[in-house]
Amino acid sequence: MRGDIVESPHMAAQGDLNPGFCLRSCGAAVRGRMKFTQLRSIHLQLDFSMAFAVASDEVLGTFVPVAVYWIYSGIYALLGDLDEYRLHNKAEEDTKNVVSKSTVVKGVLVQQAFQIAVSLSLFSVGRANSGLAAGPALAIESWLDQSRPELAMRPSPMLPTSPCDLLLGHVADLVPILWLELAINHGVVSDDNGTKVQPSLLTLAIQFMAAMFVLDTWQYFIHRYMHINKSLYKHIHSKHHTLVVPYAYGALYNHPLEGLLLDTLGGALSFVVSGMTPRTGIFFFCFATIKTVDDHCGLWLPGNLLHMFFSNNSAYHDVHHQLYGTKFNFSQPFFVTWDKILGTYMPYSLEKRKEGGFEVRPIKVKS
Protein backbone atom coordinates (compact mmCIF):
# COMPACT_ATOMS: atom_id res chain seq x y z
CA MET A 1 0.00 0.00 0.00
CA ARG A 2 1.41 3.39 -0.95
CA GLY A 3 1.65 6.04 1.77
CA ASP A 4 -0.36 8.74 0.01
CA ILE A 5 -1.15 11.82 2.04
CA VAL A 6 -4.88 12.27 2.47
CA GLU A 7 -6.02 15.70 3.61
CA SER A 8 -9.05 15.39 5.88
CA PRO A 9 -11.76 18.06 6.17
CA HIS A 10 -10.61 18.63 9.77
CA MET A 11 -7.06 19.39 8.61
CA ALA A 12 -8.34 21.69 5.91
CA ALA A 13 -10.31 23.60 8.51
CA GLN A 14 -7.10 24.30 10.45
CA GLY A 15 -5.37 25.84 7.41
CA ASP A 16 -3.17 24.78 4.56
CA LEU A 17 -0.66 22.67 6.46
CA ASN A 18 1.44 21.74 3.48
CA PRO A 19 4.95 20.26 3.91
CA GLY A 20 6.60 23.65 3.20
CA PHE A 21 4.60 25.30 5.95
CA CYS A 22 5.51 22.53 8.39
CA LEU A 23 9.20 22.84 7.54
CA ARG A 24 9.09 26.60 8.04
CA SER A 25 7.33 26.15 11.38
CA CYS A 26 9.88 23.59 12.54
CA GLY A 27 12.69 25.81 11.34
CA ALA A 28 11.27 28.75 13.26
CA ALA A 29 11.06 26.63 16.39
CA VAL A 30 14.64 25.42 16.02
CA ARG A 31 15.89 28.93 15.31
CA GLY A 32 13.95 30.18 18.31
CA ARG A 33 15.56 27.63 20.60
CA MET A 34 19.02 28.27 19.15
CA LYS A 35 18.56 32.01 19.37
CA PHE A 36 17.43 31.83 22.98
CA THR A 37 20.23 29.44 23.98
CA GLN A 38 22.94 31.41 22.18
CA LEU A 39 21.81 34.78 23.50
CA ARG A 40 21.36 33.41 27.00
CA SER A 41 24.94 32.19 26.80
CA ILE A 42 26.07 35.57 25.48
CA HIS A 43 24.13 37.27 28.25
CA LEU A 44 25.86 35.17 30.88
CA GLN A 45 29.21 35.87 29.23
CA LEU A 46 28.38 39.58 29.25
CA ASP A 47 27.51 39.51 32.94
CA PHE A 48 30.75 37.66 33.72
CA SER A 49 32.92 39.76 31.39
CA MET A 50 31.54 43.08 32.56
CA ALA A 51 31.55 42.07 36.21
CA PHE A 52 35.11 40.80 35.94
CA ALA A 53 36.36 43.83 34.00
CA VAL A 54 34.66 46.35 36.28
CA ALA A 55 35.56 44.46 39.44
CA SER A 56 39.19 44.00 38.41
CA ASP A 57 39.62 47.69 37.59
CA GLU A 58 37.90 48.72 40.80
CA VAL A 59 39.96 46.34 42.90
CA LEU A 60 43.22 47.37 41.26
CA GLY A 61 42.42 51.08 41.34
CA THR A 62 41.40 50.91 44.98
CA PHE A 63 43.90 48.54 46.53
CA VAL A 64 47.07 48.79 44.43
CA PRO A 65 47.87 52.40 45.48
CA VAL A 66 47.46 51.30 49.11
CA ALA A 67 49.92 48.47 48.56
CA VAL A 68 52.31 50.83 46.76
CA TYR A 69 52.11 53.23 49.71
CA TRP A 70 53.28 50.63 52.22
CA ILE A 71 55.84 49.06 49.90
CA TYR A 72 57.49 52.37 48.99
CA SER A 73 57.39 53.80 52.50
CA GLY A 74 58.58 50.43 53.79
CA ILE A 75 61.65 50.67 51.57
CA TYR A 76 62.50 53.99 53.20
CA ALA A 77 62.03 52.43 56.63
CA LEU A 78 64.33 49.54 55.73
CA LEU A 79 67.04 51.94 54.58
CA GLY A 80 67.52 52.95 58.20
CA ASP A 81 68.26 56.36 59.65
CA LEU A 82 70.57 57.60 56.85
CA ASP A 83 71.75 60.42 59.08
CA GLU A 84 73.93 61.95 56.37
CA TYR A 85 70.83 62.63 54.21
CA ARG A 86 68.24 63.59 56.82
CA LEU A 87 66.58 67.01 56.79
CA HIS A 88 66.15 66.75 60.57
CA ASN A 89 68.21 64.76 63.00
CA LYS A 90 66.77 61.92 65.02
CA ALA A 91 66.54 64.00 68.18
CA GLU A 92 64.32 66.56 66.43
CA GLU A 93 62.03 63.83 65.15
CA ASP A 94 61.59 62.39 68.62
CA THR A 95 61.00 65.73 70.38
CA LYS A 96 58.98 67.72 67.80
CA ASN A 97 56.55 65.01 66.72
CA VAL A 98 53.77 64.73 69.29
CA VAL A 99 52.40 61.36 68.13
CA SER A 100 54.03 57.95 68.27
CA LYS A 101 54.83 55.97 65.15
CA SER A 102 52.40 53.24 66.15
CA THR A 103 49.66 55.86 66.35
CA VAL A 104 50.63 57.10 62.91
CA VAL A 105 50.45 53.61 61.41
CA LYS A 106 47.02 53.04 62.93
CA GLY A 107 45.85 56.45 61.74
CA VAL A 108 46.98 55.81 58.17
CA LEU A 109 45.29 52.41 58.14
CA VAL A 110 42.05 53.94 59.40
CA GLN A 111 42.14 56.61 56.71
CA GLN A 112 42.91 54.08 53.99
CA ALA A 113 40.09 51.81 55.17
CA PHE A 114 37.73 54.78 55.11
CA GLN A 115 38.84 55.73 51.60
CA ILE A 116 38.47 52.14 50.37
CA ALA A 117 34.94 51.96 51.76
CA VAL A 118 33.98 55.29 50.18
CA SER A 119 35.56 54.40 46.83
CA LEU A 120 33.86 51.02 46.59
CA SER A 121 30.55 52.58 47.62
CA LEU A 122 30.88 55.23 44.92
CA PHE A 123 31.71 52.55 42.36
CA SER A 124 28.65 50.57 43.44
CA VAL A 125 26.37 53.59 43.19
CA GLY A 126 27.91 54.49 39.85
CA ARG A 127 27.22 51.04 38.46
CA ALA A 128 23.65 51.11 39.73
CA ASN A 129 23.02 54.44 38.00
CA SER A 130 24.97 53.61 34.87
CA GLY A 131 23.25 52.54 31.68
CA LEU A 132 26.40 50.67 30.71
CA ALA A 133 26.20 48.19 33.53
CA ALA A 134 22.45 47.83 33.89
CA GLY A 135 21.01 48.94 30.57
CA PRO A 136 22.17 46.15 28.25
CA ALA A 137 21.59 43.46 30.86
CA LEU A 138 18.05 44.57 31.64
CA ALA A 139 17.25 45.16 28.00
CA ILE A 140 18.53 41.78 26.90
CA GLU A 141 16.56 40.10 29.69
CA SER A 142 13.42 41.77 28.38
CA TRP A 143 14.33 40.86 24.83
CA LEU A 144 15.01 37.26 25.78
CA ASP A 145 11.67 37.07 27.55
CA GLN A 146 10.08 37.82 24.20
CA SER A 147 12.28 35.28 22.41
CA ARG A 148 11.70 32.17 24.47
CA PRO A 149 11.48 28.83 22.64
CA GLU A 150 7.88 28.31 23.62
CA LEU A 151 6.96 31.52 21.83
CA ALA A 152 8.78 30.38 18.73
CA MET A 153 6.78 27.12 18.75
CA ARG A 154 3.52 28.95 18.15
CA PRO A 155 2.29 28.75 14.55
CA SER A 156 2.40 32.17 12.96
CA PRO A 157 1.01 33.40 9.65
CA MET A 158 3.84 36.01 9.56
CA LEU A 159 6.73 33.63 8.91
CA PRO A 160 9.39 35.16 6.65
CA THR A 161 8.79 34.00 3.13
CA SER A 162 11.04 36.34 1.16
CA PRO A 163 14.81 36.97 1.19
CA CYS A 164 14.14 40.49 2.46
CA ASP A 165 12.09 39.17 5.38
CA LEU A 166 14.80 36.65 6.21
CA LEU A 167 17.48 39.36 6.11
CA LEU A 168 15.50 41.70 8.34
CA GLY A 169 14.90 38.84 10.75
CA HIS A 170 18.62 38.12 11.03
CA VAL A 171 19.38 41.84 11.48
CA ALA A 172 16.82 41.98 14.27
CA ASP A 173 18.50 38.98 15.86
CA LEU A 174 21.89 40.69 15.68
CA VAL A 175 20.84 44.01 17.27
CA PRO A 176 20.97 42.75 20.89
CA ILE A 177 24.26 40.98 20.17
CA LEU A 178 25.79 44.20 18.84
CA TRP A 179 24.45 46.02 21.88
CA LEU A 180 26.19 43.51 24.13
CA GLU A 181 29.41 43.89 22.18
CA LEU A 182 29.30 47.66 22.58
CA ALA A 183 28.66 47.27 26.29
CA ILE A 184 31.59 44.90 26.76
CA ASN A 185 33.97 47.09 24.77
CA HIS A 186 32.76 50.45 26.08
CA GLY A 187 35.59 52.92 26.26
CA VAL A 188 38.05 50.77 24.30
CA VAL A 189 39.65 52.39 21.28
CA SER A 190 39.58 50.35 18.07
CA ASP A 191 41.26 50.83 14.74
CA ASP A 192 39.62 50.55 11.31
CA ASN A 193 39.89 46.76 11.42
CA GLY A 194 38.16 46.56 14.79
CA THR A 195 41.36 45.62 16.59
CA LYS A 196 41.56 46.94 20.14
CA VAL A 197 44.38 49.43 20.56
CA GLN A 198 45.68 51.28 23.58
CA PRO A 199 45.86 55.08 23.67
CA SER A 200 49.03 56.48 22.14
CA LEU A 201 51.94 57.57 24.32
CA LEU A 202 51.17 61.18 23.42
CA THR A 203 47.58 60.73 24.58
CA LEU A 204 48.74 59.11 27.81
CA ALA A 205 51.20 61.95 28.43
CA ILE A 206 48.51 64.58 27.87
CA GLN A 207 46.12 62.74 30.18
CA PHE A 208 48.79 62.43 32.87
CA MET A 209 49.64 66.13 32.68
CA ALA A 210 45.96 67.11 32.75
CA ALA A 211 45.33 64.90 35.78
CA MET A 212 48.39 66.27 37.55
CA PHE A 213 47.27 69.86 36.96
CA VAL A 214 43.70 69.18 38.12
CA LEU A 215 44.85 67.33 41.24
CA ASP A 216 47.36 70.07 42.06
CA THR A 217 44.74 72.77 41.61
CA TRP A 218 42.17 70.98 43.75
CA GLN A 219 44.59 70.18 46.55
CA TYR A 220 46.15 73.64 46.62
CA PHE A 221 42.89 75.48 47.24
CA ILE A 222 41.39 72.91 49.62
CA HIS A 223 44.68 72.64 51.51
CA ARG A 224 45.08 76.39 51.75
CA TYR A 225 41.49 76.86 52.92
CA MET A 226 42.10 74.33 55.69
CA HIS A 227 44.80 76.66 56.98
CA ILE A 228 42.66 79.78 56.60
CA ASN A 229 39.58 78.34 58.31
CA LYS A 230 40.52 78.00 61.97
CA SER A 231 37.82 75.44 62.71
CA LEU A 232 38.86 73.16 59.83
CA TYR A 233 42.49 73.45 60.85
CA LYS A 234 41.82 72.75 64.51
CA HIS A 235 39.51 69.78 64.04
CA ILE A 236 40.80 68.25 60.79
CA HIS A 237 44.06 69.43 59.24
CA SER A 238 46.05 69.90 62.45
CA LYS A 239 46.25 66.12 62.74
CA HIS A 240 48.63 66.00 59.78
CA HIS A 241 50.77 68.79 61.24
CA THR A 242 51.40 66.88 64.45
CA LEU A 243 54.26 65.46 62.37
CA VAL A 244 56.53 68.48 62.37
CA VAL A 245 59.33 66.22 61.16
CA PRO A 246 57.70 64.13 58.41
CA TYR A 247 58.70 60.58 57.52
CA ALA A 248 57.65 58.33 54.66
CA TYR A 249 54.86 56.20 56.12
CA GLY A 250 53.35 59.25 57.83
CA ALA A 251 52.55 60.88 54.48
CA LEU A 252 48.86 60.02 54.74
CA TYR A 253 48.48 60.54 58.46
CA ASN A 254 45.38 62.69 58.04
CA HIS A 255 41.89 63.03 59.36
CA PRO A 256 39.59 60.74 57.30
CA LEU A 257 37.57 63.75 56.15
CA GLU A 258 40.73 65.40 54.88
CA GLY A 259 41.58 62.24 52.99
CA LEU A 260 38.08 62.27 51.49
CA LEU A 261 38.30 65.92 50.42
CA LEU A 262 41.89 66.04 49.22
CA ASP A 263 42.61 62.56 47.92
CA THR A 264 39.35 60.76 47.12
CA LEU A 265 37.41 63.66 45.59
CA GLY A 266 40.52 65.26 44.11
CA GLY A 267 41.57 61.97 42.56
CA ALA A 268 38.10 61.33 41.15
CA LEU A 269 37.99 64.81 39.63
CA SER A 270 41.42 64.50 38.02
CA PHE A 271 40.48 61.08 36.64
CA VAL A 272 37.24 62.31 35.07
CA VAL A 273 38.59 65.57 33.66
CA SER A 274 41.68 63.96 32.14
CA GLY A 275 39.58 61.32 30.36
CA MET A 276 42.04 58.55 31.17
CA THR A 277 41.00 54.91 31.14
CA PRO A 278 40.63 53.01 34.43
CA ARG A 279 43.84 51.12 33.70
CA THR A 280 45.74 54.37 33.09
CA GLY A 281 44.21 55.72 36.28
CA ILE A 282 45.78 52.89 38.26
CA PHE A 283 49.24 53.95 37.12
CA PHE A 284 48.49 57.61 37.75
CA PHE A 285 47.28 57.08 41.31
CA CYS A 286 50.23 54.82 42.07
CA PHE A 287 52.57 57.53 40.79
CA ALA A 288 50.77 60.18 42.87
CA THR A 289 51.10 57.91 45.91
CA ILE A 290 54.84 57.46 45.36
CA LYS A 291 55.24 61.22 44.94
CA THR A 292 53.35 61.94 48.16
CA VAL A 293 55.40 59.44 50.14
CA ASP A 294 58.62 60.84 48.71
CA ASP A 295 57.64 64.41 49.62
CA HIS A 296 57.26 63.33 53.25
CA CYS A 297 60.30 61.05 53.48
CA GLY A 298 62.37 63.68 55.32
CA LEU A 299 65.46 62.78 53.28
CA TRP A 300 67.49 64.45 50.57
CA LEU A 301 68.92 61.48 48.71
CA PRO A 302 71.44 61.96 45.91
CA GLY A 303 70.21 60.93 42.48
CA ASN A 304 66.53 61.06 43.42
CA LEU A 305 64.79 61.33 40.04
CA LEU A 306 61.72 62.95 41.56
CA HIS A 307 63.90 65.75 42.91
CA MET A 308 65.38 66.22 39.46
CA PHE A 309 62.04 66.62 37.70
CA PHE A 310 59.93 68.28 40.41
CA SER A 311 60.78 71.38 42.42
CA ASN A 312 57.96 70.34 44.75
CA ASN A 313 59.97 67.84 46.78
CA SER A 314 60.81 66.72 50.30
CA ALA A 315 62.68 69.94 51.14
CA TYR A 316 59.97 72.15 49.66
CA HIS A 317 57.24 70.41 51.64
CA ASP A 318 59.37 70.34 54.78
CA VAL A 319 59.19 74.14 54.79
CA HIS A 320 55.40 73.91 55.04
CA HIS A 321 55.61 71.57 58.05
CA GLN A 322 57.70 74.03 60.05
CA LEU A 323 56.15 76.77 62.15
CA TYR A 324 57.60 79.52 59.96
CA GLY A 325 56.20 77.92 56.80
CA THR A 326 52.62 76.98 57.69
CA LYS A 327 51.28 79.84 55.57
CA PHE A 328 53.45 78.98 52.59
CA ASN A 329 54.16 76.15 50.15
CA PHE A 330 50.63 74.76 50.05
CA SER A 331 51.13 73.17 46.63
CA GLN A 332 51.07 69.39 46.45
CA PRO A 333 51.90 66.87 45.20
CA PHE A 334 53.50 67.77 41.86
CA PHE A 335 54.12 71.42 40.99
CA VAL A 336 54.66 74.76 42.75
CA THR A 337 52.65 76.73 40.20
CA TRP A 338 49.84 78.01 42.39
CA ASP A 339 52.19 79.01 45.20
CA LYS A 340 54.15 81.18 42.79
CA ILE A 341 51.06 82.67 41.14
CA LEU A 342 49.27 83.50 44.40
CA GLY A 343 52.26 84.64 46.45
CA THR A 344 52.50 81.72 48.88
CA TYR A 345 55.82 80.44 47.57
CA MET A 346 58.66 80.40 50.11
CA PRO A 347 62.09 79.72 48.60
CA TYR A 348 64.70 77.90 50.65
CA SER A 349 68.30 76.81 50.67
CA LEU A 350 69.80 73.48 51.69
CA GLU A 351 72.77 73.72 54.02
CA LYS A 352 74.98 70.89 55.25
CA ARG A 353 74.92 70.41 59.01
CA LYS A 354 78.16 69.84 60.86
CA GLU A 355 76.77 66.78 62.63
CA GLY A 356 75.58 65.35 59.31
CA GLY A 357 72.58 65.70 57.10
CA PHE A 358 70.94 68.83 55.70
CA GLU A 359 69.09 71.81 57.06
CA VAL A 360 66.33 73.57 55.13
CA ARG A 361 66.66 77.34 55.58
CA PRO A 362 63.97 79.71 54.33
CA ILE A 363 65.11 82.59 52.16
CA LYS A 364 63.52 85.89 53.05
CA VAL A 365 62.08 87.60 50.01
CA LYS A 366 62.39 91.37 49.94
CA SER A 367 58.99 93.02 49.54
Automatic annotation (TrEMBL):
Residues 208-344 form the Fatty acid hydroxylase domain. GO terms for molecular function: aldehyde oxygenase (deformylating) activity; iron ion binding; oxidoreductase activity. The chain crosses the membrane at residues 201-222. It catalyses: a long-chain fatty aldehyde + 2 NADPH + O2 + H(+) = a long-chain alkane + formate + 2 NADP(+) + H2O. Pfam families: FA_hydroxylase. One of its GO terms (biological process) is lipid biosynthetic process. Keywords: Endoplasmic reticulum, Lyase, Membrane, Transmembrane, Transmembrane helix. Its EC number is 4.1.99.5. This is aldehyde oxygenase (deformylating).
